[in-house]
Write a structure and sequence with these properties.
alpha+beta; OB fold (Dihydrolipoamide Acetyltransferase, E2P); Chloramphenicol Acetyltransferase; 3 domains; six-stranded mixed sheet; four-stranded antiparallel sheet; elongated
Length: 452
């Protein structure tokens, strides 16, 4: 019988993926291990392989379609083999608006908290309906991944857009132009309602005290641009960090680290041909300290504790659209030179959008470094599934008291945000104390760094 090809679930938090390119077309022979198609998640792209030999009988999810995980995308089988009649269909990238009915308008319900009753969100009109014939054609949709994502987020069918790229390829600029045109058509004037229109329930709200904060409005205020939707990556970040901030009792501890000797060692190593960064030393010291404090490397759900003896260090990397956290596995077992190479390779892959999903999952602790931006001190939000996160600030020349005199030393502040269910203040202070001692003992890095 025909085998269904399901949309994989690349990560724990991934609920849908976008098909960006098919490498096979219907009728092509397929062998186990062949690349069938490419998908794009909120943070990376990946290839999907075939697990069976045969022929690609039918493509269910066309290029540009956004498909829930574990949904059928295609069928592979023997030539002429029947496809299940009740085959699940992929969710299109753009939901079509329901046809208008002649039913009388329903009374307007009481407005939700934080939404002004005198404004209404302008909806983008459907640019053109998608006909069944068009959807059933086997023509390849030539569209860039960025354009596909922009169209999906704006609710525009990319098949209705004329491509301005090479060979008629739809670019992100084409999609943005279509969004702007649709917004210009849809922009309504302010909508007002009377008590008679909103009914008794909504009218009763007029007697309530006015909120102290100005309610959010869905129409642009003076000087504001038209609203744009959050990108998929930003929505994922928002969901995860809101979950962490609202469900995890955070507390922070900060220490000042004298990295004067460490910077001198770095300059010495650079002159000898070994180019390490302050971040490399922080990652090495952090991973060793986590091995010493397994509770800081563990996780809890508030009832049970999972102690983790392996240190899988997440390193926050900023991208134009958001933030990803590549993972250096068994970081405490790596020499500093290999740690440096692994961190550089992961950051490069993240910025190029080629970071495999496996390299973004399974971290036990995260380091976030804003030192390159001149930040004096900050705190970070714990990644869900971890007990703490380390915020690294800039190394700043500072006047400090040494004995009876003053001296200029280079000071770097480290802030630990910890889950108070697992890590109390005393443990957090001892963890940062041990980390500080490692970083201030530059000589302990010398031999390891010279071998890098």
């Amino acid at each position: 019988m025909a085998h269904a090809i399901l949309m994989p679930k690349p990560g724990q938090m991934t609920e849908e993926c976008t098909v960006i390119a098919w490498h096979k077309k219907e009728g092509d022979p397929v062998k186990r291990g062949d690349i069938l198609f490419e998908i794009e998640t909120d943070k990376s792209t990946m290839e999907v392989e075939a697990f069976d030999d045969g022929v690609l009988l039918k493509i269910v999810a066309a290029e540009g379609a956004t498909v829930p995980v574990n949904t059928v995308t295609a069928y592979v089988g023997q030539p002429g083999e029947a496809i299940p009649e009740a085959a699940p269909t992929a969710v299109p990238a753009v939901p079509t608006a329901p046809a208008p009915t002649a039913a009388p308008p329903a009374p307007v319900a009481e407005p939700a908290a934080g939404v002004a009753p005198s404004s209404a969100a302008p909806a983008l009109p459907s640019i053109a309906p998608v006909t069944t014939a068009a959807a059933a054609t086997g023509d390849r949709l030539r569209i860039s991944p960025r354009a596909s994502r922009a169209a999906a987020e704006a609710g525009i069918d990319p098949r209705t857009i004329s491509g301005g790229g090479p060979g008629g390829r739809i670019t992100e600029r084409d999609v943005l132009a279509a969004i702007a045109a649709a917004a210009a058509i849809a922009a309504p004037g302010p909508v007002t309602t009377s008590p008679a229109q909103v009914g008794p329930a909504a009218s009763a709200t007029t007697s309530r005290p006015a909120p102290t904060a100005a309610p959010l409005t869905t129409t642009p205020a003076d000087g504001e641009e038209e609203p744009r939707p959050l990108s998929r990556m930003r929505r994922v970040i928002a969901d995860r960090l809101t979950q962490s901030w609202t469900s995890t009792p955070h507390f922070t501890v900060t220490v000042a680290v004298d990295v004067t000797r460490l910077l001198a060692l770095r300059a010495e190593l650079k002159a000898a041909g070994t180019n390490l960064t302050i971040t490399d030393f922080v990652l090495a010291a952090t991973s060793q300290t986590l091995a010493e404090f397994p509770d800081v490397n563990s996780r809890t759900d508030g009832i049970s504790v999972w102690t983790r003896r392996r240190v899988h260090l997440g390193v926050a990397v900023a991208l134009p659209g958001g933030l990803v956290v590549p993972v250096i596995r068994d970081a405490d077992r790596l020499p500093i030179g290999e740690l440096h190479e692994r961190a550089v390779a992961l950051a490069s892959a993240a910025r190029e959008g080629t970071l495999p999903v496996d390299d973004m999952t399974g971290s036990t602790f995260t380091v976030s470094n804003l030192g390159m931006f001149g930040v004096e001190e900050f705190s970070a939000i714990i990644n869900p599934g971890e007990a703490a996160i380390l915020a690294v600030s800039s190394a700043i020349p500072t006047a400090v008291a040494i004995g009876d005199g003053l001296a200029v030393r280079t000071i770097m502040r480290l802030t630990l945000s910890a889950d108070h269910r697992l890590v109390d203040g005393e443990m957090g202070a001892r963890f940062l104390g041990a980390l500080r001692r490692r970083l201030e003992d530059a000589g302990s890095f010398r031999q390891d760094a010279l071998n890098a």
